[in-house]
Amino acid sequence: MTGAAICYGKGYPLLAAESCLPNLGKTIRELQPKLIIPIGELATHSVLTFLWRDGNLDHMYRFFGCQIPAKQWNAWVCPVYDSAYIMSLGYKNKEDKPTGTGVVAYFWLENHVREAIEKLGEPPFSEESPKEPIQLLFDTDTIKETLEQIGNYKKKLRGV
């Protein structure tokens, strides 16, 4: 709601959202929510910008339905599809029920929101959580190298 209430602007939506990031950060720090549900690509981009400033933030839809622990806020971030997008996928029949692709889309949204709400009972981090920050890998060679290192580490632990 921060973007809609404080940062309404004309022009390219992403630029307007980026200009509102200080307000978004301030609101999250003040309210200290345990669950943040960004709705749609623009909201997801805005929230994840705080979490992964150096990451690849293209294609926000890949994060919809994920439950992301946000250590700096001690909260869960659970992005979901924008309801306008979901409504555009299917139409309603006479009984006001979704049909066609809309059935699947409503199912996604319903499940994503339910799974997000279920996270309220769980702390985003426990004592066993990694102390080092999580690193996002986007380059195929770096991913392969990292997986090889993990495999070698597992072999070393097993004494193979």
Structural account:
- By secondary structure, the protein is mainly alpha-helical.
- It has one domain.
- It is 49% helix and 5% strand.
- It has seven helices and three strands, in the order αααβαββααα.
- The chain has a three-stranded mixed sheet, covered by helices on one side.
- Helix 5 runs antiparallel to helix 6.
- It is globular.
Q: Layout of SSEs?
A:
Layout: H1 2-6, H2 13-19, H3 21-31, E1 35-36, H4 41-51, E2 68-70, E3 75-77, H5 83-89, H6 101-118, H7 140-158
Parallel strand pairs: 1-3
Antiparallel strand pairs: 2-3
- Total strands: the figure is 3
Secondary-structure-based class equals: mainly alpha
- Taken in chain order, the helices and strands follow as HHHEHEEHHH
Q: How far do the termini sit from each other?
A: 54 Å
Unreliably modeled segments: none
Please give the count of helices: 7
- Percentage of helical residues? 40-55%
Annotation keywords:
single chain, 160 residues, mainly alpha, 3-stranded mixed β-sheet, 7 helices, 3 strands, 49% helix
Question: Summarize this, please?
Answer:
By secondary structure, the protein is mainly alpha-helical. The protein has helices at residues 2-6, 13-19, 21-31, 41-51, 83-89, 101-118, 140-158, and strands at 35-36, 68-70, 75-77.
